[in-house]
Amino acid sequence: MTIQWFPGHMTRARREIQEKLKLIDVVIELLDARLPLSSRNPMIDEILQGKPRMIVLNKADLADPAVTEKWVTYFKNKGILAFPVDAATGTRVQDIPAQAKVLFHDKIQKQISKGINPRAIRGLIVGIPNVGKSTLINKLAGKAIAATGDRPGVTKGQQWIKIGKEMELLDTPGILWPKFEDQEVGYRLAVTGAIKEQVIDIAEVAFYAVKYLTQYYWDTLQERFDLSKKPENFDTPDEVVEVMEEIGRKRGCIVSGGRVDLEKASGIILRELRAGKLGRISMEVPLSFML
Ligand code: G4P
To answer: Where does GTP bind (predicted)?
Structure first.
């Protein structure tokens, strides 16, 4: 799916979410565990207007577990509950209703003490395109409810999906726009496949990925593609291109005259990275841990 957000889209998306906020108790903010800040909407705090929320770091199966732990701590230090899940297999998705119960424990107890039978906690999943909202809704529901690839503005009758006895979810997620202003963010989103290559040149995206992997995950990259030597300086573009060319040669991406077809090599690198073939890789580390 290509992300194309214009000011009109953003206004409508924001309005749609704010309409839904009136119906719910808690927001489940879905981020990509590999790049939690880049996959976060820049105006989320303003949009949520103080609604209770939890951050769910999805696709944790593809992220570096040690880095994901750092993100959990990062959000905890900001007073926000965060935890990793893998919506595709369902790993830890049941933490969502369990944590909602913890968040509303006092309120529920108060109601019980007054003799009121507490109603189910109502949740809304929000996140940028491709972060896994539909996959998560379907997994929690235990059946196909949400069509993957939902778009803002495409409205249908809203329904509540029961998640166990104590929680229910709106069946349509809130769709947010990512941060486009920052080029680095755009590259990270493109590397993970949240922005398709039609928007950014595939070789440029692969260049960004190889440069990053050379710097932070060299051993993994070397092992996957059987590379000969680590570039002395990953900041030198020619050296990064040499790594890409070596990958191309190893994978038979050769055109007439023995030249490496960089575009084809780029496709292979990105496909394998996104599919987790290089192992679990995070594209972003909390700044506080880099110092
Ligand atoms: P969205 O509603 O937020 O737009 O996302 P959606 O559920 O459609 O998920 C986008 C892609 O991410 C899907 O792949 C889905 O299978 C994958 N996905 C969702 N959650 C997880 C997870 O926890 N781990 C992994 N590894 N993948 C996950 P797809 O159908 O192949 O789409 P695409 O890759 O062709 O875009």
So the answer is: 58-61, 130-135, 174
Tell me, what's the pLDDT at 63?
Answer: 98
End-to-end CA distance of the chain: give it in Å, rounded.
36
Locate the ligand 1 atom nearest the alpha carbon of residue 146 and give its number: 2
70 marked ligand binding residue: no
From residue 108, give the alpha-carbon distance in Å to each of 93, 111, 169, 210: 22, 5, 18, 50
Beta strands 121-127 and 26-32: pairing type? parallel
Best-predicted range by mean pLDDT (180-184, 215-219, 285-289): 215-219
Class of domain 7-170: alpha beta
Annotated domain spans of the chain: 7-170, 202-285
Task: Identify which of 174, 146, 156 has the alpha carbon closest to the alpha carbon of residue 43.
Answer: 174
Report the atom number in ligand 1 closest to the C-alpha of 138: 7
Q: Is 174 annotated as a binding residue?
A: yes
Q: What is the pLDDT of residues 97-133, one digit of tens each?
A: 999 999 999 999 999 999 999 999 999 999 999 999 9
The pTM (predicted TM-score) of the whole model is 0.93
Q: What is the pLDDT of residue 291?
A: 43
Nearest ligand 1 atom to the CA of 85 is: 23
- For residue 54, how far is its CA from the centre of ligand 1 (angstroms)? 20
pLDDT digits (tens, 9 = 90+) for 63-86: 999 999 999 999 999 999 999 999
Residues contacting ligand 1 via CB (< 6 Å): 58-59, 61-62, 86-88, 127, 129-135, 148-150, 193
pLDDT of residue 196: 73
Residue nearest to ligand 1 atom 16, measured at CA: 88
Torsions phi, psi of 50, nearest 5?
75, 5
From atom 4 of ligand 1, which residue's Cα is the shortest distance away?
130
**Residues 170 and 24 sit within 8 Å (Cβ to Cβ):** yes
